[in-house]
């Protein structure tokens, strides 16, 4: 008998995902060129798990029920193209290929167009939740042909994480909608991670918190409105002992953050769309600055830094919780704003409330806040920005003062709080009726006759400035 589901790429994510599929009662067949990985998966087959694997692409494709449902969990880039190339001679019209990696959205559009010519359905489906998520329930963000989605829906809904019984997967839109949403998910992820690292820095430098105290603060916060995967793992991280010393592992880790590109793509594309995402931008910048470790070390010796004042622990902890809450909201607001604009620009027809919904469990940015965000967008599908949702005004108003206090403290004491600062700047600018950018228009018209508009009447104006 033929198999329900095929998976190419039996690395950690692929292996875990296919086991998850089999756990849920679907028969699954894996393919990888690595014999060891194939054998390891074959060994998982038993009565409960109808699972098999092969190093031969032909055997793999032949083993699958039609229309074939083949998911690719391989590194983004050229490998995706070469896997598709190798599948093409064996698959048939109507078959479904699903790219589960973090592919760049224009690559997905190109692949979809190519495959459409052969009547093969192509999905870009972002999968979030890391190795554990893939095994036990990820959040899945599929985009592609709506009619073909019916074939993969039962499998995806079974394997996805559940929030109050609802699966964290939904058809998001045509073409690269799924990859685009996953890209922005990761941009938000970058912002939230940067913000938690700044709060850690403040607790340490201004409050003299030891690792247990940092652990305790994040743990306590995770029991309240800040409840989220990233706050939870942050609390755990401060408990982790180092095997090679008597210290905590966190104090032994080099402060250079790597990146695979999805955060940067979010910033780049947001800029192309003209949508500001300064918290995400600065999170990318900080990874870049962090990489300049030797330059930072040399520059540190050149300049004096203010001596950091101490803040009373309980006071700092309260301010930090409120500032983190405020800046988390602002980060989601920025990311969702990009999605709304991308939806118009690329014709994705995204429903933001559905996206917030499938982010409530399984993914890296899952958070209690996402239930509130879902509600806000369910109430008003065309909400221009989360910050103006009636559901959020009190939350933001009640926490912004603490962000101000900490940003001011950081500036005065030489502690960089770029994510927090940019979140505050974004909020202050977005909520200001009259910004000084009338001057920029005047300057542009002055030196380049670029024209300006007026507050008091319609039209386009130019002034011969020097003659006045
Ligand atoms: C997820 C993650 C994942 C991503 C890592 C690493 O949702 O499970 O976003 O897709 O690969 O977070 O990203 P960076 O290497 O760019 O930090």
UniProtKB/TrEMBL annotation:
Keywords: Gluconate utilization, NADP, Oxidoreductase, Pentose shunt. It catalyses: 6-phospho-D-gluconate + NADP(+) = D-ribulose 5-phosphate + CO2 + NADPH. It comes from the Bacteria. One of its GO terms (biological process) is D-gluconate metabolic process. The keyword NADP applies. Coiled coil: none annotated. The active site is at residues 182, 189. Pfam families: 6PGD, NAD_binding_2. Its EC number is 1.1.1.44. Pathway: Carbohydrate degradation; pentose phosphate pathway; D-ribulose 5-phosphate from D-glucose 6-phosphate (oxidative stage): step 3/3. Residues 178-466 form the 6-phosphogluconate dehydrogenase C-terminal domain. One of its GO terms (molecular function) is NADP binding. Substrate binds at residues 102, 128-130, 185-186, 190, 260, 287, 444, 450. It is an enzyme of class 1 (oxidoreductase). SUPFAM superfamilies: 6-phosphogluconate dehydrogenase C-terminal domain-like (SSF48179), NAD(P)-binding Rossmann-fold domains (SSF51735). Belongs to the 6-phosphogluconate dehydrogenase family. Homodimer. Catalyzes the oxidative decarboxylation of 6-phosphogluconate to ribulose 5-phosphate and CO(2), with concomitant reduction of NADP to NADPH. This is 6-phosphogluconate dehydrogenase, decarboxylating.
């Amino acid at each position: 008998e033929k198999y329900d589901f095929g998976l190419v790429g039996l690395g950690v994510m692929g292996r875990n995902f296919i086991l998850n599929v089999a756990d849920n009662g679907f028969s699954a067949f894996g393919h990888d060129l690595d014999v060891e990985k194939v054998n390891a998966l074959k060994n998982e087959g038993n009565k409960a798990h109808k699972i098999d694997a092969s190093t031969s692409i032909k055997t793999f494709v032949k083993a699958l029920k039609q229309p074939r449902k083949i998911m690719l969990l391989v590194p983004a880039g050229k490998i995706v193209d070469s896997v598709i190339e190798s599948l093409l001679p064996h698959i048939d019209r109507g078959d479904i290929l699903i790219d589960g990696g973090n592919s760049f959205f224009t690559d997905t559009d190109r692949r979809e167009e190519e495959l459409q010519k052969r009547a093969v359905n192509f999905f870009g489906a972002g999968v979030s939740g890391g190795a554990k998520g893939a095994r036990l329930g990820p959040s899945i963000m599929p985009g592609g042909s709506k009619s073909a989605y019916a074939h993969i829906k039962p499998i995806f809904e079974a394997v996805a994480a559940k929030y109050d019984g609802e699966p964290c997967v939904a058809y998001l839109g045509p073409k690269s909608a799924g990859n685009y949403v996953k890209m922005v998910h990761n941009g938000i992820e970058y912002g939230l991670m940067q913000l938690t690292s700044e709060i850690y820095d403040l607790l340490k430098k201004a409050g003299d918190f030891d690792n247990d105290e940092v652990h305790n603060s994040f743990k306590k916060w995770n029991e309240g409105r800040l409840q989220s995967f990233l706050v939870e793992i942050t609390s755990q991280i401060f408990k982790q002992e180092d095997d090679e010393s008597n210290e905590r592992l966190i104090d032994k880790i080099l402060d250079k953050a790597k990146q695979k590109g999805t955060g940067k793509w979010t910033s780049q594309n947001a800029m192309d769309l003209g949508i500001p995402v300064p918290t995400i931008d600065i999170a990318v910048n900080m990874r870049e600055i962090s990489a300049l470790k030797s330059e930072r070390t040399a520059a540190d010796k050149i300049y004096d830094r203010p001596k950091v004042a101490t803040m009373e622990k309980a006071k700092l902890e309260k301010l930090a919780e409120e500032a983190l809450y405020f800046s988390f909201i602002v980060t989601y607001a920025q990311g969702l704003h990009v999605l709304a604009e991308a939806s118009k620009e690329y014709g994705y027809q995204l429903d933001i409330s559905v996206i917030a919904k499938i982010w409530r469990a399984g993914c890296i940015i899952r958070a209690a806040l996402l239930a509130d965000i879902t509600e806000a967008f369910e109430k008003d599908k065309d909400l221009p920005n989360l910050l103006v949702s009636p559901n959020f005004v009190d939350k933001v108003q009640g926490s912004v003062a603490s962000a101000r206090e900490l940003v001011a403290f950081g500036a005065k004491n030489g502690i960089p709080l770029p994510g927090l600062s940019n979140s505050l700047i974004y909020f202050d600018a977005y909520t200001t009726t009259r910004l000084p950018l009338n001057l920029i228009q005047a300057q542009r018209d002055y030196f380049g006759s670029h024209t300006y508009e007026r507050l008091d009447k319609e039209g386009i104006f130019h002034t011969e400035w020097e003659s006045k």
